[in-house]
């Protein structure tokens, strides 16, 4: 059973998962880079994420560590943060 949606708050599926959880009253969490940075700028404080050092890869690694499962959505091949996530599994 799900108890929390964990995400780094990046644009796309990461943020959509957080938004869906919040709209449903479901708990959220996760780690994001210091400064709450994402591809589209600072991550809104609405998302209760913990800032950690080490940049995007460390954020991804920590979220994999803190999760019991990971959902990955892709079209043709893995790259960038999605590829890094698979390497940390």
Description of the molecule:
This is Molybdenum carrier protein. The protein is of the alpha/beta class and 89 residues long. Helix content is 35%, strand content 16%. The chain is built from 3 helices and 6 strands; from the N terminus they run βαβββββαα. It has helices at residues 13-23, 55-65, 80-88; strands at residues 5-6, 28-29, 31-33, 37-38, 41-42, 50-52. The strands form 3 sheets. The protein has a two-stranded parallel sheet with strand order 1-2. The protein has a two-stranded parallel sheet with strand order 3-6. The protein has a two-stranded antiparallel ribbon with strand order 4-5. The longest helix is centred in the N-terminal third of the chain and has 11 residues, at 13-23. It starts with a strand and ends with a helix.
């Amino acid at each position: 059973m799900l108890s929390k949606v964990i995400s780094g708050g990046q644009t796309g599926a990461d943020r959509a998962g957080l938004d869906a959880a919040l709209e449903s009253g479901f708990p959220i969490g996760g780690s994001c880079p210091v400064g709450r940075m994402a591809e589209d700028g600072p991550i809104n404080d609405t998302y209760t994420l913990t800032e950690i050092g080490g940049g995007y890869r460390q954020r991804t690694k920590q979220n994999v560590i803190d999760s019991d499962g990971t959902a990955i959505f892709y079209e043709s091949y893995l790259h960038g943060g999605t590829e890094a996530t698979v390497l940390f599994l």
